[in-house]
Design goal:
The structure is a homodimer.
Chain A (H helix, E strand, L loop, with lengths): L4 E6 L4 H11 L5 E4 L1 H7 L1 H10 L4 E8 L3 H11 L3 E5 L4 H11 L2 E5 L5 H9 L4 E5 L2 H5 L6 H13 L2 E5 L17 E4 L1 H4 L4 H16 L1
Parallel strand pairs in A: 1-2, 1-8, 2-3, 3-4, 4-5, 5-6, 6-7, 7-8
């Protein structure tokens, strides 16, 4: 079992705010994500800024692409993204088109996806999936359950590299002990703390304590 | 049965290109859409530019929102959008959060959505749905089928205002004859023609001929 990566999701409204946290935590985390909110508000400028700040860090464009896979992937790649996300209800042709341009895709799991669909994503060459607690579900009182963990385990057993995200805190990491998580993604869990750089270091230390 | 609206989808990569077609066809169509590609590449600037060009036209932000409904909707509204889109696999709390901010939402139908889910969207107060042939499916050889038309009819019978989109041309409008379509959405079908303004007028005339 590997040591999970730590990914910071920059879900700021504006790039001038996102880069403050990016600069603070960029060297502490393994992966930097231009969040959907940021991409929708700033456009490809967000990806370009983060790429210029961190030329050698894995950079993800969280587009949640649902259609026009070729164009969206090409634009993200041109802007400097290494990977991008597609939404689970995108059609297989959309995923294949995006994959061909981008090389690496992550399927974002929302709503009533099925393991039969997940097998189709694998068959299409997509080997990464992001298991979510949606922000809105969390705000409505949802939380990580044993059922979530079982689904993650099944995805891992199928062959997916699984990222977990949604309301993650230092304290909640241990919920995932024993699971071969590929990446933990935290947004506010890092950026909304008093000292984001220190929090990112604590996340890394806790991950190493549990999985190291 | 009403006369369907005509909506132009501006799916250009850059705002400087989108406004050329926006200016050409904006006064011919009923609704202007800042397409997903444009939103992801230009950010909220795309919505702001189109709002400033057309202060009184219904303007849609095609965000295909999957999460963080409150923030995405608030940002789109602040930029000047009247309506926005959510993806069908978003959770109900996400849709409710976006609806509360935006007032009017359209659910984008991709992948394996069900009529049971559709009833939940209606119950949540969402009365618009967009039935797609995805661009990538069309590129893979897909087309409008009797099954598509039956699904659209069922959505209309349930109470949805249904927009139809995906590879629409002047010639394909008659496929929908007899259906109470709310809006036809065309992107390249208008913008990629030799004279987009003339094409938009022809779309309007053909819609009036069939539904008038």
């Amino acid at each position: 079992m590997g040591i999970p990566n730590l990914q910071v999701a920059l879900d700021h409204n504006r790039i001038e705010d996102a880069i403050v946290d990016a600069i603070a935590v960029g060297n502490e985390v393994d992966i930097i994500e231009a969040g959907t909110i940021l991409c929708l508000n700033e456009g490809d400028k967000a990806i370009k800024c983060l790429r210029n700040l961190f030329p050698n860090k894995t950079l993800i464009a969280d587009t949640k692409c649902a259609d026009a896979g070729t164009t969206v992937a090409r634009n993200c790649k041109l802007a400097g993204a290494d990977w991008m996300t597609v939404i689970c209800c995108a059609t297989i042709p959309t995923m294949e088109a995006a994959l061909k341009e981008m090389g690496t895709l992550q399927v974002e799991l929302y709503g009533d996806w099925t393991f039969e669909q997940a097998q189709l994503w694998l068959d299409a060459g997509i080997d990464q999936a992001i298991y979510h607690q949606s922000r809105d579900a969390l705000l409505s009182g949802g939380t990580w359950t044993e059922q979530d963990l079982q689904k993650i385990k099944k995805l891992i057993d199928m062959g997916f590299k699984v990222s977990a995200t949604g309301g993650l805190t230092l304290e909640s990491l241990k919920l995932f002990e024993g699971l071969d998580i590929y990446t933990f993604i935290a947004g506010r869990g890092i950026c909304a703390t008093e000292n984001p750089a220190e929090t990112a270091k604590e996340f890394k230390a806790e991950i190493k304590r549990i999985w190291g």
